[in-house]
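ugh ok fine here u go
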Amino acid sequence: MATMMRLAPALLLAPLAACATTTASEPAPVTPTGPAVPPAGMQYLYGSGEAAALSRQAWTALVAHAAAVVKARPADSVVLAEGASLDAPKYVPCGNRPFAAVFDVDETVMLNTGFEYYDAKTGKGYDAADWDAWEKTGEGAVGPVPGADSGLSALRAMGVTVIFNTNRSAANADATARAIKAAGLGEAVHGQTLYLAGDDAMGSRKDGRRWTISRSYCVIALGGDQLGDFTDLFNVGQSVPARRAATQGPAIAKLWGAGWFVLPNPVYGSGLKGGFDDVFPADKRWAPGGAKP
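structure:
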């Protein structure tokens, strides 16, 4: 998961009138209440058949791509090499290294259903302490992204090593490995098939971990729900329109579905930003009667 970014709750709790009777030495009792129904993004990702179908579609395409690639060894991996740019990408060469596929964890292979339930019901919004507690104790309330469990099994069956590269904390490595296993996604070993934030000096940036993995493997597929799951170059301060355009440049556009595979996530992340001027170009606006709003 890339560094979490969430929209503030739409409704802030007002102090209860009963709190006026609370003594100064006692904290006011507050029972947070979230919205009557989950936010639209959560309804979609965790509840809708459409999101489940999109996920299965992505996994089907990914497995088919991998099966074709292992039959004809590529010269290069799908990991951008050091010094590459989005306009002039170059890739880490494969040599004779064994094949691997590298995946983000949260909302790419594993759904954090329990945490998102808590988040929605309390209306608190993202809290780092709560997330750390979830990493440590949430293994009983996770599940696979639709298609991920069978997809990962298919990759392993064709001899492709599955590696997880997540921004969960290295301090919680054992708990994260347990959660991955509890979600039906197989074994993960820290430093071998599990890489975490804190494993190097790059913090939440993942390129360093991808290069480390590429020293041992020919990476034939990358999967994620955030652009940073493919290269940190997408997160270097571009405007919202420029970042979107960067995914459509000729050299990069050909990678989507052919080595780079994106899973839907309208709940949190680096894609949830931008004002009206960022999202709606001036020449693509409409109002009844033809007047520009």
